[in-house]
Amino acid sequence: MKQQDCLRRFIFEEHGVRGEWVRLEKSWQQAKQHQHLVSDAVDAQMGQALAAVVLLSATIKFKGAMIMQIQGGGDLKALVAQSSNERQIRGLVRSEASVAGANLQEMIGEGGRLVLTVESENAEPYQGIVGVEAETLADVLRTYFTQSEQLDTRLWLFANKTYAAGLFIQELPSSNQDKADWERIEILANTVTADELLSLDCEDLLHRLFHQEKVRIYDPEPVEFKCNCSRQKIGGTLAALGRSELQAILQERDDIEVDCQFCGAQYHFDKVDVENLLTNPAAETDTNSPTRH
After folding, report:
1. What is the fold, at CATH topology level, of the domain defined by 231-292?
2. DSSP H or E segment with residue 249
3. What is the β-pairing status of strands 221-222 and 224-225?
4. CDD domains in the record, alphabetically (predicted)?
5. 6-225 adopts what CATH topology?
């Protein structure tokens, strides 16, 4: 059985280099079924973003969520990919009805930027920003790591209708290795093809790329699609709008309906719910008005 919906970490035992491999199938299909993807090219960008955020989330120790947002002035307005520390992923795309451009930079357009945010339960949020000044997400992230971490880092990201996959290598912090070792591993990794990354299991791929190196591969970590939206979170967002705006909406309709952009869940708040939100927000729970998926 092929390895799907899992992350594998690995390390080069004789060199100061670590790596990760990921391939998504069911989680990728579930994440995109709630999005309006106007072309195969946009579909591929979302798949690459989800694979990337899983890889990046595994490079740090945290309890919470890592969110990658790409936005600009082009036809592809926004691309968001999120992974929790437990490898629970979700994503969304916002675009025009048709998206011009042959690569990410052209789709995102002028002023494009990538924002990487880590929201941790036990630390202040961390945010890093880099301009989208390369054709591929992999190269944009390479620039990000060069600027923010000062660590040699490379990613290879591919996605098609069925799979999204990624390969990641990075020099270890405080590594005193010979740069020639890194360069050799990078050259070997750079021979990977889309077909290989999308079809080969981790062991097979690493053997093909690095059969002359001593590589230790760690146990698989499962990845799944899961949205963390809730009635309580949506209610908090509504309450932040304030009484006057909420009452103005309710003058035009019987209730307020909010759709989760990630999973399509629908939340309904009637006049009683809204009053309860405004006067006692902590009391609003998932057992009140209906929620539809």
Report:
1. CBS domain Like (3.90.1280)
2. helix 243-252
3. unpaired
4. Hsp33
5. Hsp33 domain (3.55.30)
